[in-house]
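Researcher: I've got a protein sequence and the SMILES for S-adenosylmethionine. Could you write out the 3D structure of the bound complex as structure tokens? I'd like something to compare against our soaking experiments later this week.
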Amino acid sequence: MNKNILQSDALYQYILKTSAYPREHQQLKELREATEEKYNNSWMILPVDEGLFMSMLLKIMNAKKTIEIGVFTGYSVLNTALSLPDNGKVIAIDMNKEYYETGIPFIKKAGMEHKINFIHGNAMQALNDLIANGKEMGSFDFAFVDADKVNYINYHEILLKLVKVGGIIAYDNTLWYGSVVAPEIFTAQYYRDSREALVVLNSFLATDSRIESSLLSIGDGLTLCRRLY
Ligand SMILES: C[S@@+](CC[C@H](N)C(=O)[O-])C[C@H]1O[C@@H](n2cnc3c(N)ncnc32)[C@H](O)[C@@H]1O
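Model: Sure. Here is the predicted complex with S-adenosylmethionine in place.
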């Protein structure tokens, strides 16, 4: 499972070894290694170079309050928490508690547990609950979406209400292992539904007047959307 979209794997290894691994936080490294040891789907973790990019973005934005959909063992959540000021907050939603409980000792070791609120459950339900609560409307600086691809387009509508004007919604895996340009007939069944959903999403985001957007060729594709109104 090769997550990078560069043509040369040697070039990607160069980026990781020369630039990314030396700057990876010790607890992120330990969490990544523990996840790789425990799970055979550890490829779901945010790539290290993408994590460094997101960390810098969060700091440039001066983000304080963020929301993440799709936690897995918590690599991206811990990466975000480490990038926020001491009074920062991350709301982290995942339907699989066993996954994110794996990350909690590493989050504690990094001294970041006071910044993270986990919500266990289905993301759509959790987002609708936040909307119903009313207080959270337009309150988030940043949202990171890394869960079920078929629902990204639905999350988009809800997150446009939860993220403040000028805030960023970031969608991960928008190039879906390069399959967005592969003829559907050659796409393995596992990738197909997500591929279809992401092809629709990418076109939709490109013309959505409520945002400005930029699809970055980092990791497996990261689309940044900045809310305009
Ligand atoms: C790609 S992984 C997230 C990786 C994580 N961002 C990281 O850096 O390690 C996707 C996660 O989304 C969760 N997920 C998938 N569909 C979901 C849904 N409908 N509601 C809540 N969580 C969901 C899965 O349980 C899984 O942990």
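Model: The chain has eight helices and seven strands. The chain has one domain: 9-227.
Researcher: Great, I'll pass this along to the crystallography team.
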